[in-house]
Amino acid sequence: MALLISDPDAPDFTRRYANLADPRLGAEALEASDEFFAPKERMLNPEPAVFIPGKYDDHGKWMDGWETRRKRTTGYDWCIVKLARAGVIKGLDIDTSHFTGNFPPAASIEAAHVPAGATADAATQWTEIVASTTLQGNSHHYVEVRDPASYTHIRLNLYPDGGVARLRVYGQPRLDWGQASRADLIDLAAMENGAHIVAANNQHFGAASNLLMPGRGVDMGDGWETRRRREPGNDWAIIALARPGTIRKVEVDTAHFKGNYPDRCSLQAACVSGGTDSSLVTQAMFWPELLGEQKLTMDAQHVFEREIVSLGPVTHVRFNIIPDGGVSRLRLWGFVD
Known about the structure:
The protein is mainly beta and about 325 residues long. It has helices at about 15, 275-285; strands at about 20, 30, 55, 60, 65, 75-95, 105-110, 125-135, 140-145, 150-160, 165, 165-175, 185, 195-200, 225, 235-255, 265-270, 290-295, 300-305, 315-320, 325, 330-335. Helices cover about 5% and strands about 40% of the residues. Strand 3 and strand 4 (about 60) form a beta hairpin. GO terms for molecular function: allantoicase activity.
């Protein structure tokens, strides 16, 4: 079991918002000016970048990211990425991990909102959301974005060339909820619908945001897992729902967790207006129960419907695992309020 690789200096937006450039959600690297040494698709890989000494291919040293050739002409390199969902971008991570003598000296980010069915290319009208920023080798570069507009595509510009290991685009998906039927059950805890993690007391072996990812977990590393609890109490995660809604069905999936699944789980919920993330952590301890304690089993999907308490529309839930352990996915099916 691999220890969760995280940057303790990462800003809050990296934990709170979805990575809109995640191919597991549907993001795609569409076009690049050059990708001689390493393909553009590799830059979106959700796993942390790795370095493999002695590994070469037909073009030279194998690098885990997008890398262009040494530019011998004027201009600069660029890559266009289609985001998984239209959304408001809150921040980015331009990660040059393992690129030392071949990282770009600087980069900028442009964004565009491309209508459905249209194609984003070099002729698209782009808006600069991150001005040219100095980069360092083998480093994370976190940049906060304050543009309130919703975008569907971003363009990463490298000045003049080089390699980027990973590009993360953290943001809040914008869906047309006016088109959603009030009679259809919607997963209000789905990251692709706009749900996000507010806080979690422990994420030692796996990020709590994995709970909200689409599909079933691919392995034990693709879930939320806490360290072994050696004191009284239980572990928890607070989730802001995609939209206020009335929850009718809960699914707790412990896929791949066998000797380390939680013994039990429960849910608390409330309709919250205003407040900060830190205040929600305190409030959540006193929220009413949406789902009383339920027994869990290893490597299984647990569905609860009749056990759900009617609380009406809620905006946030606190997911309790008792006492600790790992859960792959959490689904909260409900009607949009």
